[in-house]
Amino acid sequence: MEKTRLLTDLAINNLETTGKEYTVKPKETGASTLYLRVSAKGVKTFTYRYRSPQGRDTWLTMGNYPAMSLHDARKLATDYALMRKLGIDPAEQVQAEKVAKQAQAKELALNPTFENVTQLFYERVISRRRRPEQFLWAVQKYVFPYIGTVRVSELTRGQVAEVINRIVDNRTPVMANRVLAMVKAVTRYAAEQGHCDTDPAAGFTRASAGGKEKPRNRVLTTDEIRKLLLALDADAPAGRRLSLQVRCALLWLLMSGQRISETLSAQWDHIRDGLWNLPAENTMGQRTHFVHVTPLMAAILDELRPLTGTSRYIFASSRDSKRYMAKETVQNALSRLLNDGTIQVRKFSPHDLRRTMVTRMSDLGIAPHVIEKIVNHKMAGVMGIYNRSEYLPERQEAIELWNLRLQELMGACGNVVYMARG
Fold first, then answer.
1. pTM over 0.90
2. Which distant-in-sequence residues (6+ apart) come within 8 Å of 282 by Cβ?
3. Of 181, 330, 183, which Cα lies nearest the Cα of 249?
4. Which residues touch 291 (CB under 8 Å, ≥6 apart)?
5. Are 19 and 39 within 8 A, CB to CB?
6. DSSP for 255-294?
7. Which H, E and C letters describe 45-74, residue by residue?
8. How many other C-beta atoms are found inside a 10 Å radius of the C-beta of residue 73?
9. pLDDT of 16-64, one tens digit each?
10. Which helix (H) or strand (E) holds 3?
């Protein structure tokens, strides 16, 4: 059965499932063109109808709607029409491309590129670990553009060195160490799987990358905290240059003392009964954790809700609300404002806000074991073995005291709702 319709997205969506297959012929075109087939179960498939060089009435399947958009289907139909003008049979061309892709896939399976092996390693190993997206982000940014298409069996030590040296030369030694570890993991996996006879990255050490990493000890002074809080006001120069999500994330880090990855992955349904519930899979120690939501933190949530409330994530990405904001977004935004002097505080990282909170809470006279519990550190020694108390009342009192101290430092402008307003 054949129906004639003007093909639009609205018309396609309104096509009925009749229990029998039928074909929709576009009202606006001729016989050799784009058609739409609707199966008995309602599956809608674009097809290109034409007469082959041998004179056969040919129906060439293009793709299912809406996975293939109407715009893309029309563009492909135009390409097929051009092929026919050049004397090329579209069906034969599609088949030839399919055979070529199969041959290429077979060749890559026998002799894969670095990117191919990385993808296999990611799927079989990395994807089961915490925060696998960080691995993928790093190799896509720092490795694939330079050696991604190189056959892993042909990868040389010199090519590996160039990748790492490029990062070192950019004055990011810690990232150089991280990327080196990732490259070594991939090449070791490639050797184990028989994709290369020798591991080209086996001899590299941290000494040839970022070197020994010094433990960070940056803690903001009381005056620096005050300057930062005032800078994060929505009407301050720094505040105007930051997105609402980034500004609120920095405030939340300072107010809660949690890790940046734990903060950014927080979901709206993790906030219950005045507590922020951090599931084990979101924490570094793989331990379920609770943080009391203070009035200041609740004000941050109120400011974010109109913007990200329809997303799962409190700190949803502005580009894709189905994902949470990348920590690099926060780090890079902060670095820009520190480097150009918009925030007039000595350089620090988002993680330094956690260390700052721990240190300044101690200055307030809060007991060390309570602070350790707030930041989800595992207690050492005998305390860790025998003391199973969560100290929830003490933790609530402590974090509220810390947030009151932050409000004092804001002074006359100490209204977080005002400060976070976007």
1. no
2. 261, 262, 265, 266
3. 330
4. 256, 258, 275, 276, 278, 374, 399
5. no
6. HH---HHHHHT-BGGGEETTEEEE-GGGSTTS--EEEE--
7. EEEEEEECCCCCEEEEEEEEECCCCHHHHH
8. 21
9. 898 899 999 887 654 458 999 999 999 999 999 999 888 889 999 999 9
10. strand 2-5
Reported as type and span, the H/E element at residue 2 is: strand 2-5
The token duo for 276 is 């922020």
Q: At which residue do the structure tokens 């034969």 appear? A: 92
Q: What's the pLDDT tens digit per position in 163-206?
A: 999 999 987 888 999 999 999 999 999 999 999 999 999 989 98
Rg (Cα) of the chain, in Å, rounded?
Answer: 29
* Longest CA span, the chain: 90
State the pairing for strand pair 275-278/22-26: unpaired
- The structure tokens listed for 407 are 């409000």
Tell me which residue of 231, 263, 241, 239 sits closest to 351, measured CA to CA: 263
In a 13 Å sphere around the CA of 312, the CA atoms on its Cβ side amount to 6
